Write the structure tokens for this entry.
Amino acid sequence: MEIVILAVVIAVVVFGALGGLLIGSRRRKPLPPAPPKTPDITAPPAEPHVGEEAETPRDEERRTIEEVDLPESSAPVVVEEPPTVEAPPIEIPEPTAGRLVRLRARLSRSQNALGKGLLTLLSREHLDDETWEEIEDTLLTADVGVLPTQELVERLRERVRVLGTRTPEQLRGLLREELLTLVGTDMDRTVRTEPESTKPGIVMVVGVNGTGKTTTTGKLARVLVADGRTVVLGAADTFRAAAADQLQTWGERVGAYTVRGPEGGDPASVAFDAVKECKEMGYDVVLIDTAGRLHTKTGLMDELGKVKRVVEKHAPLDEVLLVLDATTGQNGLVQARVFAEVVDITGIVLTKLDGTAKGGIVVAVQRELGVPVKLVGLGEGADDLAPFEPEAFVDALIGD
């Protein structure tokens, strides 16, 4: 029994000692960390290099300024001036007097469709009803128009019946007289650009897209400069990319001044400023190139009317020229009707009136609008725009 009690006492003492040790270790505060050693300062990593610079730099012998040999005398530094851009030389346009006569050979290419065909048919020994129908078809194919064709055929039939025997010279003279009557020799075809004491001559150029309107405006500037006028160009076609650049290039060739605005800006504002600048500069004529527009778009046509009204706050327009593509035929007449309802057309400019065109459109468009053809374009050359001369035109159609 005593042995058991002794063993229990020893166990209690052992467990007590172990518990004290555990409690003491928990209550003991940790010692503060030892102060860190002074860190080694290293250089930041170098930027990567290529080629020789990637090598580890080597210690090289360095020389002071006193040890460096300088050249006894150095050549003076020559600073080159930037090259000056020379302005393009001013061109001298071809005189306009008789220009259509000089371009007669080009215009005469269309005689196969009208003049030469008519002469061939009229030269037949017997002119029966079938022949006269062929003559009508020839005139209609050449875009003369229905009513003018009927009038011309009736007059030709009457004169041929009275004339009887017909020589080639007589037929040529007869056809020339009738075509001149049809084209009209008593219409005023002068492009009114005469400046007045208080205002310059004001011309607005209108037309649909693709008729050569901007090019025609530039060529018209050459015509006026050739006649001794000073010209301001108003680039009111702000909707078509590079239209203003194109017009300015035409103007620079002959010394005309161009007024332009931002792309997509208000065309009426540009037109107004162009007239204002022309008056202040004392120039003779201002040509306003308007944006090409579809004749079926009411909003665009209303915008054209606005341009006209704004310009006329300065002074009335002297000319409103409608540019038509001579190859479009009857579609061109539809365009002409719509434009005539929006602005008062005073003259027609027929472009592409060369070997690809049909000369009868001159008659048809004049009859449709009651206004004369004043200018014709006969090619892509800068001086291929000519004042329309009925005699030269008819002579080119029927040939020599």
Q: What stands out?
A: The first helix runs from residue 2 to 27. The beta strands are 201-206, 231-236, 257-260, 285-290, 319-325, 347-351, 373-377, 385-387. The chain has a mean pLDDT of 79.
